[in-house]
Design brief:
Layout lengths: L14 H16 L6 H8 L3 H7 L3 H25 L4 H17 L2 H10 L5 H28 L8 H18 L8 H16 L2
Helix pairs in contact: 1-2, 1-4, 1-6, 4-5, 4-6, 4-7, 5-7, 5-8, 5-9, 6-8, 7-8, 8-9
Organism: Streptomyces similanensis
Pfam families: TetR_C_24, TetR_N
Protein name: TetR/AcrR family transcriptional regulator
């Protein structure tokens, strides 16, 4: 059996990235359930064999659309959490960063929250575990500040996390590029709201 080439277009874009880009655009435009594998491979300019070589199924593509963003966000959160700075600065940086990275990947976020129920039970469980790890690291920053007396203990850390991420997950329903606020301005406002809510 011949090996599947890693690049086949003039720009040298790897096949997995081309498939993800095509799937993301089509899922965003017409929905996951209304997008066929044939449409994805035609948009990516590859064969079905190439898709199944890299992803195995349309379900795998949906999972990767979200997982690639979450991987970046987890790496960035870990960097903020491990920085040698006061906990208030680390939390504010992490809180703003997740807003910016979500806005930078709005299609991915919209697709995922609209289509997560299409994932297989195994993939759904995996994604929930990945998100839980992220939220637990974020919560640990809040708890660290509460233990130091920097943040109020009036509201449980779990509820504070839900409060912030409720805003983050809602971004794909209202934020539009070219609107009155830049991604960084939205991020700064939401991070400031979070820090104000935590003041002793």
């Amino acid at each position: 059996m011949a090996a599947v080439p890693t690049t086949t277009d003039p720009a040298g874009t790897p096949v997995p990235q081309r498939l993800l880009a095509a799937a993301t655009r089509l899922f965003a435009e017409q929905g996951y359930d209304r997008t066929s594998v044939q449409e994805i491979v035609e948009a990516a300019g590859v064969t079905k064999g190439a898709l199944y070589h890299y992803f195995g199924s349309k379900d795998d593509l949906l999972h990767e659309v979200y997982a690639r963003v979450l991987r970046v966000q987890q790496e960035r959160l870990d960097a903020f959490a491990n920085a040698d700075e006061p906990v208030e600065q680390r939390l504010r940086g992490a809180a703003a960063d997740v807003v910016v990275t979500t806005i930078d990947n709005l299609d991915d976020a919209m697709i995922f929250f609209r289509s997560m129920h299409h994932l297989s039970p195994e993939k759904n469980k995996q994604v929930r575990a990945e998100r839980r790890r992220y939220h637990e690291r974020f919560r640990a920053l809040i708890e660290e500040g509460q233990e130091q007396g920097v943040f109020s203990r009036a509201t449980p850390a779990d509820l504070v996390v839900d409060y912030h991420f409720g805003s983050v997950h809602h971004l794909s329903t209202w934020y539009r590029p070219g609107g009155p606020l830049t991604p960084q301005e939205v991020a700064d406002h939401l991070a400031d709201l979070l820090l104000r809510a935590l003041r002793p």
